[in-house]
Design brief:
heterodimer; A: about 180 residues; alpha+beta; 4-stranded antiparallel beta sheet; B: about 375 residues; mainly alpha; 10 helices
Chain lengths: ~180, ~375
Amino acid sequence: MPNNYWNNIFEKNGKHLLSLDNVLKKVPFFRELKKGELRDFRRIIHQRYYKKNEIIFYEGEPGVGMYVIEQGKIGIYKNFDEHSKEELASLFPGEFFGEMALLDESPRSATAVALENSTILGLFRPDLFDLINRNPRLGIKILLRLSQMIAERLRLSNNENQELRQKLDNALIIR
Amino acid sequence: MKAFYQPEINNSNSSQENQLVILFNKQFIKKIAKFIFTIIILTGLILAFPYVKSLLGPLAISLILTLLLNPLIDRIEDIGINRSAAIIIIFLFFGVILFLSVRLLIPGLNQQIQSVSKALEKNDTESIIDKLQVTLTQQIPILKNPAIARQVSEKLHLFFTSLFGRILKVILKIISSFTLIITVPFITFFFLKDGRTIKKAIIQMVPNRYFEMSLSLLHKTGMQLGRYIRGQLLVSSIIGTLSTIALYSLDIPYFFIIGVIAGLANMIPYFGPVVGSIPGVLVAIIEKGSMEAVIGVIIAFATVQLLDNILVSPLIVSRSVHIHPLLVIIVILIGSNVAGILGMLVAVPIFAVLQVIAKEIIWSFQNYRLTG
């Protein structure tokens, strides 16, 4: 049995919960949460340990939630298999991935792999919806932050799209 | 959990040396360890089963109650009341309702049950047995023989001893139902209070590769089962109440018991409504003896079914289970073989629950890459 399996079960002491709070506070996504809200929120967070080269999720699988990196390094790949892969990004502590899956169950757009032994925090759609039911104020706060973040990424990708279009137009004019 | 850079098997050539490499391959040893671990766990579970068997009933009832009450508790928590306080409020509320219904309904119900048994006695069971005995001795003179008479008396003695055994069993059952009365609210309270923590702890134990799938599976089945059970109970109580009112207004005796039976039988798709109306029709024939009363009861049940199909069920959509009528019969027969009348009643809901779980598991296996 790999060590991370037992880590996933037993690593839950007070010291760790404290470090969990510190990690959450560093992430822009959770920074605005008050102390009590953070405590409520911590209850729905799943802390998982992945060893180097372990797959977190595959492209095409139904998305169930997002992850925040507490420790380690995560690689995001397109068309990933044992022989070839197309790297999209490498992510470090404090960064997050898979956030679109918090909104719907559409398939994952890329594969996520732990590039080092990593600790990641999972926030999942069923738990978020449950939180919205129980504590709508906190739920809406998180949803708002999520939409702002997705809007920001959309804006960035629109800009990139526009730049690429411009470059393509210029190239065509030069020809 | 497989390392994707690491080649699984050295496939350069197929010499004996390579076979040794495979034998001592880390992956291979891990697989053996996993296999042994699984065998140990399974053996442990099988060995422990007789000791935990009696716990399964209270656990199942508590789980159903948790699924039923959870949305209510969430709603109360939503208005800013602490979860434990919300559970206590709900417990007190239902406790009072249960107490009042026991106080108000049980005497009436008792009276009705007594009059049903009296009605059965009207045909005097003892006189029937006496008549049977006389006829038997007349027809079979050998029964007058003292040796045979002794044998018969021995058999009777055996019968009464087994009857005593049965009574003892019933007493034991009553005692165990007392433990049920204590354990069920206790377990339900903690399921409601710490359900999320328990769920999280279970999920925590799942290996990484199956983690997302298990999380989604647990959530989806829980949600669907909750909706299904809540829907079933709601529809059954509405049908039971409507039937009771209809029978009462028709002045049919034992209206309450027949109404309850009709409500419970309604849980069985296709056949439930027919089965539920039989006692009503029979009572109308025996007690009233008029064709008008029988037709009245049939119309009353038909109207209740019409209301169910037009108004109640469409509003409570989640109640519907799509099980083929042939499968319903098979499931009911299996249920009756396993646990008699109770088995017949709960067979279809249990099958529906298993169907929901199986569907979700199959969907998950089709959509997640579990072998990677």
